[in-house]
Design brief:
Helix content is about 55%, strand content about 5%. The chain is of the alpha/beta class. The chain folds into three domains: about 80-310, Clc chloride channel, CATH 1.10.3080; about 335-360 and about 370-400 and about 430-575, Clc chloride channel (Orthogonal Bundle), CATH 1.10.3080.10; about 595-760, CBS-domain. Keywords: Antiport, ATP-binding, CBS domain, Chloride, Endosome, Ion transport, Membrane, Nucleotide-binding, Repeat, Transmembrane, Transmembrane helix, Transport.
Length: about 750
């Protein structure tokens, strides 16, 4: 039924004339690569290097350098990604604090760094030091009162608007591809699609700079998703330095898969989670060799970030926590409830955000991206400033929500009523009744939660770098912390209830609200992205707590089940479909009983298939066919009458071959016969010199019969990464199925608009 032939049957693809020339084997923008062909070319290259290595010591050294080039690229990616992540973290820290005040002793210090260096800071007032001054103190010498508050409020909004305007202007003018999260496009590129410039040097530079600006502006977005894009730009840059990767799009994608792992490694300080994220979420083709290299790149990136130590706590992330209390079986019920909340939030967010992004694409709103960013920033800053939980950076908020209340905590969330007779170690403070600070914090958190849910829907997808991990985690952490405090107070006031009696005696420390925040964060992130394994690993690497894997797993699985009940797509897949990228998802199932003949082109009533014959067309005929059609390639048949299939010729290589032949070979003119056979055809005397193009002919194109079930065809396209597949019956060519035909058919079967699959 399926005939793949010998993968190397196409001959040496590089030398279809006497010697290779530039651009052969490359692809045009917005085209899909042929994975089988790339694999075949790499096998040929490797075979050539191996055979040459036996000829001399120098060739042997060159073969060793070729073998090690992969590890060198990984080392360079890890070093650059880790350095950029550290610089971004330090810059965000400083610029976020710049909205509220400035350090007089050194203006480049953040609030925390400024007060570290002060000798006049007490432990109780560790956030206050003479060197750090709010804008009102600096400008009007007032720190309290209505006028000081209004001035600080006004300057907070002005700084936020300034940062956001600068970011959107830089993206618009210098690198339009630097906007968004980048993960939907990375997934599409890794599946074999070409988007030139998406991973370019300008994109890398502008995305790094604007990422600092937008996170500092206080918008409801994170830097974690865009860091994956930044790391992949690093991967693309370094792979272009080595011909092994720059000349083979398949090999380049192996490097990009590893770079994505390094990106998550530095975003969360989770090297193993990064490797699993690349495997589970973004990669399309992930051989075992790529797994090892991803691990190495993630390790180097994490080590580099740890050396920079951007948070000053010798940790890779801002929200590293350690809990001292075990969890109990009865707590699984609220953990599962948080999973349900995460799934529902994920569904709500995806539907609302996609509806808003579609509206942006189809209405006049999309024509004014700068105005939209300014408007959303202004609304965010105006509403965020009065509430201390939305005023600070989202990472700091998550850090506070994850924290366990120790004896030294000064947060409102830790304002419990202490027993004066308590004499216990610092780490084991018993459950206590909530004080007024906790109740006011609960109200502020509830308002912050509603605000975050609404504003994130409108923020994600604007023409600025915008990650979704941190806002999703913040939503879950706020909900989780409130549930945790509720369970804690219930256990304290009703410890005689049957569910608390066995594990929560009076005076015991039995409920950790910070753990609930962590579980809620995992649930919401899982609901939006539909990650499971990598999510749990990232979360326990974040917290360093192996014993909390079961609550995290329960919440992640529950949120995925609940979200999947309303729709199988995660946010990244939804944005891929919205943008019309030709992405064939491995996770989708095709269960319809259609055949290859129902999908192939040409259909009944359509013009016959454009084909080349093996020895009866002139150069002019071939050039006319290329000019009049926009197909990526043409089947080659014995003759138009027999239609017996010989092979397949790529459009780009036909153009290059004819152009090169006209320049280099004497006697090749417009009425020269083009032939794809070994021996030239018999020509009348005085005929112009014929042109042999057998070397560009793929003699083993993938073929299926017209009665092959589409279920099998879809599987072949997924697993082998084909661009096109020819349909035959008894060796006669009937039609062709391309990747876009498959995607259109799948959309039609799912009652969607088949034209929505086209890239826009």
């Amino acid at each position: 039924m399926v005939n793949s032939g010998d993968m190397n049957g196409s001959g040496n693809l590089m030398d279809f004339l006497d010697e290779p020339f530039p651009d052969v084997g490359t692809y045009e923008d917005f085209h899909t690569i042929d994975w089988l062909r790339e694999k075949s070319r790499d096998t040929d290259r490797h075979r050539k290097i191996t055979s040459k290595s036996k000829e001399s010591i120098w060739e042997f050294i060159k073969s060793l350098l070729d073998a090690w080039s992969g590890w060198v690229v990984m080392l360079l990616i890890g070093l650059l990604a880790g350095t950029l992540a550290g610089v971004i973290d330090l810059a965000v820290d400083w610029m976020t604090d710049l909205k509220e005040g400035v350090c007089l002793s050194a203006f480049w210090y953040s609030h925390e760094q400024c007060c570290w260096t002060s000798n006049e800071t007490t432990f109780d007032d560790r956030d206050k030091c003479p060197q750090w001054q709010k804008w009102s103190e600096l400008l009007v010498s007032q720190s309290e009162g209505a006028s000081a508050y209004i001035l600080n409020y006004f300057l907070y909004i002005m700084w936020a608007l300034c940062f956001a305007f600068l970011a959107v202007s830089l993206v618009r003018v210098f690198a339009p591809y630097a906007c968004g999260s980048g993960i939907p496009e990375i997934k599409t590129i890794l599946s074999g699609f070409i988007i030139r410039g998406y991973l370019g040097k300008w994109t890398l530079l502008i995305k790094t700079v604007t990422l600092v600006l937008v996170v500092s502006s206080g918008l409801s977005l994170g830097k974690e998703g865009p860091l994956v894009h930044v790391a992949c730009c690093c991967g693309n840059f370094f792979s272009s330095l080595f011909s092994k990767y720059s000349k083979n799009e398949g090999k380049r994608r192996e490097v990009l898969s590893a770079a994505a792992a390094a990106g998550v490694s530095v975003a969360f300080g989770a090297p193993i989670g990064g490797v699993l994220f690349s495997l589970e979420e973004v990669s399309y083709y992930f051989p075992l060799k790529t797994l090892w290299r991803s691990f190495f790149a993630a390790l180097v990136a994490a080590f580099t970030l740890r050396s920079i130590n951007p948070f000053g706590n010798s940790r890779l992330v801002l929200f590293y926590v350690e809990y001292h209390t075990p969890w109990y079986m009865a707590e699984l019920f609220p953990f599962i409830l948080l999973g349900v909340f995460g799934g529902l939030w994920g569904t709500l967010f995806i539907r609302c955000n996609i509806a808003w992004c579609r509206r942006r694409k189809t209405t006049r709103l999309g024509k004014y991206p700068v105005l939209e960013v300014i408007l959303i920033t202004a609304i965010t800053a105006i509403i965020a400033y009065p509430n201390p939980y939305t005023r600070r950076s989202t990472s700091e908020l998550i850090s506070e929500l994850f924290n366990d209340c120790g004896a030294l905590e000064s947060s409102q969330l830790c304002d419990y009523i202490n027993d004066p007779n308590m004499t216990r170690p610092v780490d084991d403070i018993p459950d206590r009744p909530a004080g007024p600070g906790v109740y006011s914090a609960m109200w502020q958190l509830a308002l912050a939660l509603v605000f975050k849910i609404v504003i994130t829907i409108f923020t994600f997808g604007m023409k600025i770098p915008s990650g979704l991990f941190i806002p999703s985690m913040a939503v879950g952490a706020m909900a989780g912390r409130m549930v945790g405090i509720g369970v804690e107070q219930l256990a304290y006031h009703h410890h005689d209830w049957i569910i608390f009696r066995n594990w929560c005696r009076p005076g015991a420390d039995c409920v950790t609200p910070g753990l609930y925040a962590m579980v809620g964060a995992a649930a919401c992130l899982g609901g939006v992205t539909r990650m499971t394994v990598s999510l749990v690993v990232i979360m326990f690497e974040l917290t360093g707590g192996l014993e909390y894997i079961v609550p995290l797993m329960a919440a992640a699985v529950t949120s995925k089940w609940v979200a999947d009940a309303f729709g199988k797509e995660g946010i990244y897949e939804a944005h891929i479909h919205l943008n019309g990228y030709p992405f064939l998802d491995v996770k989708d199932e095709f269960t319809h009983r259609t055949l290859a003949t129902d999908v192939m082109r040409p259909r009944r009533g359509e013009a016959p298939l454009s084909v080349l014959t093996q020895d009866s067309m002139t150069v002019e005929d071939v050039e006319t066919l290329i000019k009049e059609t926009d197909y990526n390639g043409f089947p080659v048949v014995v003759s138009k009458d027999s239609e017996r299939l010989i092979g397949f010729a790529q459009r780009r290589e036909l153009i290059l071959a004819i152009k090169n032949a006209r320049q280099r070979q004497d006697g090749v003119v417009s009425n020269s016969i083009v032939y794809f056979t070994e021996d030239p055809p018999e020509l009348p005397p005085n005929s112009p010199h014929p042109l042999k193009l057998r070397r560009i002919l793929n003699l083993s194109p993938f073929t299926v019969t017209d009665h092959t079930p589409m279920e099998t065809v879809v599987d072949i396209f997924r697993k082998l990464g084909l661009r096109q597949c020819l349909v035959t019956r008894s060796g006669r060519l009937l039609g062709i199925i391309t990747k876009k035909d498959v995607l259109r058919h799948m959309a039609q079967m799912a009652n969607q608009d088949p034209e929505s699959i086209m890239f826009n």
